[in-house]
Amino acid sequence: MNTTAIPDLPLTSIPLPQRGSWPAAVHRFDEESAWAVRAALAAQRPLLVRGEPDSGKSQLARAAAEALGRLFIAEVVHARSESQDLQWRFDALGRLGDAQAIGAGSHTPEEVRQRLAPGNYLSPGALWWVFDWQSAFDQHQLGGQQSARPQPPAGWQPGQGSVLLIDEIDKAEADLPNGLLETLGNGAFTVPWLEQAVSAPPGAPTPLVVITTNEERELPAAFVRRCLVLNPQLPKNQDDFIATLIARGTLHFGERCTAEVYREAAGQLWQDRQAAEDQGLQGPGQAEYIDLLRVVTALEPEPQKQAALLGKVQGFTLRKHPSSN
Question: pLDDT-derived band of residue 24, with 50, 70 and 90 as boundaries?
């Protein structure tokens, strides 16, 4: 796979339209994350994004796709996920059911072979789509469209490239990241029943692979070494922490909240975060701050009346652990 010119990413607000199950949102790159994306593209390595749950790690991949004009594909990892699932899936149960149905009828051996050909039950996984869209599309049609096809934005062509989000990789066993090492390193993988490996066509842009972890499980050292790593963190200083949250809240809600509400909510989150950390617990973060502002704006559309409401609802969104008192 080859790289093309790597553009700068805008350090301004980027509206993210609804894509499939992903709701409309807005994102703003900071300088660090913008450089991390460009560096991953230049190195042709995956970008591993560490951080607290719901801190915008997944949205970074989606925003990169929007800013770069690329197709966005997401795969959420769970405890039973295997690296093969990201490459291809085989519907063995469907094939068995068809074999039983065919056995009950009258068919020639050639008809049986054609109907039960393995390719009829083979579906492309996320890596197949981002490596070679056209062959994945062809296999999707041949395989009976057993899995959902990614929906590209209007006017997108495979030559524009893609962004693959592998979300919450720490939920899987170590076999999954270890299994990705060769695939991501080679930019190709083999599929049983096919005569050639799946890889990007000559001249195709290297897909940007963004992998997120909530640090629930330690990742294999060999895997981490093959990644570029972005570790976004909220500021440790109280004033900087509050200023950062106010900026992010304003990005989402604009003038729907007053400056007083933005600041008071951020200050309360700082206090609750410190109290949780004193107990050795995970404190609230950006997601809880946005949830609190969403609650306030939904229950009281009039900004000047929101400050009184804030004290009534902030405990439900910010305090996730029993009090130690």
Answer: confident
Residue in 280, 300, 283, 212 with CA at minimum distance from that of residue 245: 283
Residues in the chain, overall count: 325
According to the model, what pLDDT value does residue 104 have? 67
Long-range contacts at 296-304 (CB < 8 A, ≥ 24 apart): 296/257, 296/261, 296/265, 297/253, 297/256, 297/257, 301/256, 303/255, 303/256, 303/257, 303/258, 303/261, 304/258
Identify whether the C-beta of residue 195 lies closer than 8 Å to the C-beta of residue 161: no
Let me know: does 143 contact 123? Beta carbons within 8 Å. Answer: yes
For residue 91, what pLDDT is reported? 86
Average pLDDT of the residues in 253-257: 92
CA distances from 180 to 75, 77, 123, 127 (A): 14, 13, 18, 10
| Residue-wise DSSP of 27-70 | EE--HHHHHHHHHHHHHT--EEEE-STTSSHHHHHHHHHHHHT-
Which amino acid is residue 272, in one-letter code?
D
Please write the tens of the pLDDT for every residue from 269-304.
Answer: 999 889 888 888 888 888 899 999 999 999 999 988
Q: What distance in Å separates the CA atoms of residue 103 and residue 1, rounded to the nearest whole number?
A: 45
